[in-house]
């Protein structure tokens, strides 16, 4: 009896061993398959990431290689500080981009002066004050502004806004720096609000509760706790939106008048670097000095926007611990 029982137990153990081997084989193959898929996903993401670096390097090489002849034939100091941009002159062509740089910064800084207070106010209201139902309506409405084509903003500035500004200030130039600055401010606000609100929402809930526990009001909590804790994100959002304004083309082309003047008058017609490239690149002879000078303007603009984005990234990485 005991011998038969032992024999049955031995047969059962053999059957279990066989099923265990099948289980190991089955799920071992599955594990290898999953591992193979992970390898492809990992390396696919690596290739996608490296491709952005390759594209950036290609743009950098193409831009600066085409701009090099201009820097060889034109003194870089004269190019950057020259007060006259008139490359089509037959008698004395001039390649000074100072009026274009001043026009670019005049419009961008004017837009920043308008957009920063409005954007910060919208951010505080949406993040800390607005009822969820109101926020559900206002936030998508603000984000829709970022999806409107820039040519639509430019057309509005050209046809409608310029007339309002002229009627209000009585200025001589119908298309001017203020006209472009207002439109750029409208385009900057969605970027600023979206990024700044994310920074405020990352402030730990415990900080708010601690402030309220100490007797602080809502406004005192916003002013003394939330804004300082999210300040790096807010500043980065502001800088990135300024970079967006500096690189804008179609809106300023249609709204600012495109007159390369050295002026700091917001009601005067100006011309930006991006507008100059867009206007003149289609008609310039290929390989000419004028052609290379336009690429040189693009190279200067590339350096400016790269510096702006680098400052924003440095602020985020340097002070990220404040709002983690």
Structural commentary:
The protein has 12 helices and 2 strands; from the N terminus they run ααββαααααααααα. By secondary structure, the protein is mainly α. The chain has a two-stranded antiparallel ribbon. Helix 3 (98-129) runs parallel beside helix 6, helix 4 (132-147) packs across helix 6 and helix 11 packs antiparallel against helix 12 (289-318). It is globular, with a radius of gyration of 30 Å. The model has no long low-confidence stretch (mean pLDDT 83).
Write a brief caption for the model:
The protein has 324 residues and is mostly helical.
Outline type: globular
CATH superfamily of the largest domain: MetI-like
Query: Unreliable runs, pLDDT <50, ≥5 residues?
Result: none
Indicate the mean pLDDT: 83
What secondary-structure arrangement, pairings included, does this model have?
Layout: H1 2-73, H2 76-81, E1 85-86, E2 94-95, H3 98-129, H4 132-147, H5 150-169, H6 177-201, H7 205-213, H8 218-229, H9 231-246, H10 250-255, H11 273-280, H12 289-318
Antiparallel strand pairs: 1-2
Helix pairs in contact: 1-12, 3-6, 3-9, 4-6, 5-6, 6-9, 7-8, 9-12, 11-12
């Amino acid at each position: 009896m005991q011998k038969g029982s032992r024999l049955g137990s031995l047969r059962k153990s053999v059957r279990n061993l066989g099923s265990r081997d099948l289980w190991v084989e089955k799920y071992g193959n599955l594990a290898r398959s999953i591992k193979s898929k992970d390898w492809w996903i990992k390396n696919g993401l690596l290739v996608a990431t490296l491709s952005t670096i390759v594209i950036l390097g290609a743009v950098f090489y193409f831009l600066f290689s085409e701009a090099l002849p201009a820097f060889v034939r034109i003194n870089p100091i004269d190019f950057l500080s020259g007060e006259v941009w008139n490359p089509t002159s037959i008698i004395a062509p001039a390649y000074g981009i100072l009026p274009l740089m001043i026009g670019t910064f005049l419009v961008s800084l004017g837009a920043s002066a308008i957009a920063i207070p409005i954007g910060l106010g919208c951010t505080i209201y949406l993040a800390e004050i607005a009822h969820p139902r109101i926020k559900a309506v206002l936030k998508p409405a603000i984000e829709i502004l970022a999806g409107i084509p820039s040519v639509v903003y430019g057309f509005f500035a050209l046809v409608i806004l310029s007339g309002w500004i002229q009627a209000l200030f009585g200025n001589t130039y119908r298309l001017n720096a203020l006209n472009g600055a207002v439109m750029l401010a409208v385009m900057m606000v969605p970027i600023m609000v979206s990024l700044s609100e994310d920074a405020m929402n990352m402030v730990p809930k415990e900080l708010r509760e601690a402030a309220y526990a100490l007797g602080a009001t809502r406004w005192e909590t916003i002013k003394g706790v939330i804004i300082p804790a999210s300040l790096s994100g807010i500043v980065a959002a502001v800088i990135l939106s300024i970079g967006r304004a500096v690189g804008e083309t179609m809106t300023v082309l249609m709204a600012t008048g495109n007159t390369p003047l050295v002026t700091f008058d917001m009601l005067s017609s100006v011309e930006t670097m991006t507008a100059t490239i867009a206007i003149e690149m289609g008609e310039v002879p290929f390989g000419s000095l004028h052609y290379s000078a336009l690429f040189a303007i693009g190279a200067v603009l590339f350096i400016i926007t790269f510096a702006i984005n680098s400052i924003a990234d440095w602020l985020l990485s340097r002070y990220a611990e404040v709002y983690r």
